[in-house]
Write a structure and sequence with these properties.
heterodimer, A: OB fold (Dihydrolipoamide Acetyltransferase, E2P), 3-stranded antiparallel β-sheet, B: Peroxisomal Thiolase, Chain A, domain 1, Peroxisomal Thiolase, Chain A, domain 1, 2 domains, 9-stranded mixed β-sheet, 3-stranded mixed β-sheet, 13 helices, 14 strands, globular
Amino acid sequence: MNVPRHWRETPERYRMEAAKCRKCGKISFPARLICPACSNKVFDKTNLSGIGKLLTYTIIRTAPEGFEDIAPYAVGIVEMEEGVRVMGQIVDCDLVNLKTGDKLISKFRRMNEEGKTGLIMYSYKFVPDVGI
Amino acid sequence: MVGIIGYGTQIPRYRIKVEEIAKVWGADAEALKQGLNLYEKSVPAPDEDCATLSVGAAKNALARAGIDPALIGAVYVGSESHPYAVKPTGTIVSEALGICPYVHTADLEFACKAGTEGMFIALHLVKTGVMKCALAIGADTSQGAPGDALEYSASAGAAAFIMGTENIVAELLDTHCYMTDTPDFWRRENAHYPEHGGRFTGKPAYQKHVFGAVEAILEKTGMKPKDFDYLIFHQPNGKFPVQAAKQLGFTEAQYRYGLLTPTLGNTYSGSSPMGLAATLDEAGPDQLILLVSYGSGAGSDAFVFRTTKHLLKNRDMAPRVRKQLNEHLKYLEYGEYAKFRGKILKPE
């Protein structure tokens, strides 16, 4: 991921900023230019609560470049309270205990870095909701 | 009237015990534990750093304060492990919290005192009416060289405090600072790990400045040690703050809630601020708290707070420090710890 792209995606990656259709109320994440439900083009910004439920997941054991040191790790699809589905890494969990239906919350974490001297990229990840 | 309107902390899930480090370096774990009153420490996950811990702590502070983040006029992040040498942590934190763009941010460094530096500035900006609210954070993923005494204590954590004038949970009564140029601990540009003066970090450094700040604020306020319900000193280990407290006439009942180091380690800039947060977790209304930080180099900031009735109302809006400290833990072996902390050299 290059620097400008990461910067453009800051609102959604840093604070899960979504778009709420001003006409029908549908929430889109990431934000869209046209509402998929009613084709309206006017939105309000809204931040997702960060609370969701794990729908499905997989364990990555052969990681792509840049992620080798953290393998094995979980990536899942999380249905957020607002109804949107978000794909993200699940951390701070015991992989053997992870199961669909688990309540997860988002956390702000390092996602990747462009080598030791390049940009550090941050994003949301998910952790089990254990009340801390 | 100015004070803390919201506070929060973030502690990583991972821990390593003193025995696990000691066995690698052939050290006497029992002697270390008894000598330093230190048993284990927190370790940041590979995807945690000063910025991520700051955001986590600040979100908890916002939950307790119950304010719109846009009301915050300044964000100060004190740390000696900022992710970048050049590029502010404060902008990352502000953006993640939705405070940008109408905000003043600064990254502060003063060894372990950087967190209370931010608190000092934030409190006084609000007090003078420059802004309605200001956020101060002390956060670190501390560095300790392999095999060095610091490796047993250097840990990770963050505490965030939102200062304001309405719905105050702890009112600021007074502050005092005590500074000298004392070379007890430092890290040069591009150096991975800090260096320190061994025993020189004790009497002429920690003790001199903590004692100086305590004596000065007691004289300024006309208070005595027994007037305080709670006490928090900077905690480089579990021994220094206890020794200092006893010598100054404080009792265990006053410092026990704020003493986190024995199982948390030294979170450097987060250390005394996290102790304050743990104390606020337990304090009742109308109680007096004395907070005294210490940062090598060297200096101490002293604060006197009085809790209010709002503390009880807001406290359960975010997790308490002891819950973060004691639950959902995962203990690491030294090899995992070395990997997490980037202590293993790999080919580029």
